[in-house]
Amino acid sequence: PAPGGNSLQIIASNGQATTMLLADLNALPKSSVGSESGPKVSDVIKLGGISDFATLAFTGSNGSITLTKDKVTDQVILSLANNTITLVLNGTPKEQWIKDISGINAQ
């Protein structure tokens, strides 16, 4: 992966890995959550070949978080501001967002 959080690896439950670059993510339709905008996580994982999952685990520079399928709504997006990938969760304080996302692992 490129340094600085410029790419994202999506791993399906069968172990199939897909690497996406910022350009791939920027090509997806944007949604807004508060003042942030970016592609919906649901669109990102679909592009990465994931159609069904029980949980998604996100890994970033400041930690990780696992979301169950019911929590992955249209209000969960990846902000691409400043050439980094940040997981934005509606209703979660900005300090708790996971920054520099490098991986999404589906189970």
SSE sequence, one letter per element: EEHEEHEEEEE
Helix content bin:
10-25%
Radius of gyration: 12 Å
Strand composition percent? 35-45%
Major β-sheet strand ordering: 2-1-9-5-6
The total beta strand count reads 9
Structural class comes to mainly beta
- Give unreliable regions as ranges: none
How many helical stretches?
2
Shape: globular
Ends apart, CA distance between termini: 22 Å
Largest sheet: 5 strands, mixed
Chain-averaged pLDDT: 93
Describe the structure.
- The chain is mainly β.
- The chain is built from two helices and nine strands, in the order E-E-H-E-E-H-E-E-E-E-E.
- It has helices spanning 22-26, 41-47, and strands at residues 7-11, 17-21, 31-33, 36-38, 55-60, 63-68, 76-79, 86-89, 103-106.
- The strands form three sheets. A five-stranded mixed sheet has the order 2-1-9-5-6. A two-stranded antiparallel ribbon has the order 3-4. A two-stranded antiparallel sheet has the order 7-8.
- The longest helix is centred in the middle third of the chain and has 7 residues, at 41-47.
- The chain is globular.
Overview features:
mainly beta, 2 helices, two-stranded antiparallel ribbon, 37% strand, 107 residues, five-stranded mixed β-sheet
How would you summarize the topology of this molecule?
Elements lengths: L6 E5 L5 E5 H5 L4 E3 L2 E3 L2 H7 L7 E6 L2 E6 L7 E4 L6 E4 L13 E4 L1
Parallel strand pairs: 1-9
Antiparallel strand pairs: 1-2, 3-4, 5-6, 5-9, 7-8
